[in-house]
């Protein structure tokens, strides 16, 4: 199971299609991409031998590049979460629109059923405030 995770992670990194990292070809990223501990990676000697054969020189990044890449990864995570929230909100809005449309059509059907000869009772007008005369006769 762990070996499969590591092989799949290695394939994604080498193909430039990482899911959980910014994509640098490092053993640290191999562990992150496979979502296993660094110790697990270092115990998988066969996988490490394959990694070393395919990645001739490890890619070294400056602290600034590491910071930049971590910021990008964090922003991508925030974007995924925001997109998820928007999708959820859109689903709720679609449901509300369907309910509103159903209520509208039910209202029309009820009005039709009552017929145009029957009028709905109107609410009584509010009493005039002291000092104000009513103008409706």
Which overall shape is indicated by the principal axes computed on the Cα atoms?
elongated
Q: What pattern of helices and strands is seen along the backbone?
A: HHHHH
Q: Helical amount among residues, as a percent range? A: 55-70%
Total DSSP E strands:
0
Instruction: Please summarize the sheet with the most strands.
Output: none
Radius of gyration from CA coordinates = 33 Å
The percentage of residues in β strands lies in under 5%
Uncertain residue ranges = none
Structural class, by secondary structure, is: mainly alpha
Mean pLDDT score: 85
Number of helices: 5
Distance between the termini: 87 Å
Question: Any overview of this molecule?
Answer:
The longest helix is centred in the middle third of the chain and has 52 residues, at 63-114. The model has no long low-confidence stretch (mean pLDDT 85). With 137 residues, this protein is an all-alpha fold. The protein is 66% helix and 0% strand. It has five helices and no strands. It is elongated. The termini are far apart.
Features of the shown structure:
mainly alpha, 137 residues, 0% strand
Quickly describe the structure.
This protein has 137 residues and is mainly α. Helix content is 66%, strand content 0%. It has helices at residues 2-15, 27-34, 38-43, 45-54, 63-114.
């Amino acid at each position: 199971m762990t070996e499969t995770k590591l092989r799949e992670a290695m394939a994604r990194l080498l193909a430039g299609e990482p899911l959980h990292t910014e994509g640098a070809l490092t053993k640290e990223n191999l562990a992150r991409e496979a979502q296993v501990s660094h110790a697990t990676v270092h115990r998988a000697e066969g996988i490490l031998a394959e990694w070393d054969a395919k990645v001739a020189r490890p890619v070294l990044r400056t602290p600034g590049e590491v910071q930049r890449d971590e910021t990008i990864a964090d922003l991508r995570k925030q974007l995924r979460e925001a997109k998820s929230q928007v999708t959820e909100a859109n689903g709720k809005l679609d449901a509300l629109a369907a309910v509103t449309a159903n209520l509208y059509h039910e209202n029309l059907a009820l009005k039709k059923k009552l017929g145009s000869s029957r009028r709905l009772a109107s609410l009584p007008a509010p009493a005039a405030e002291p000092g104000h005369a009513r103008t409706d006769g």
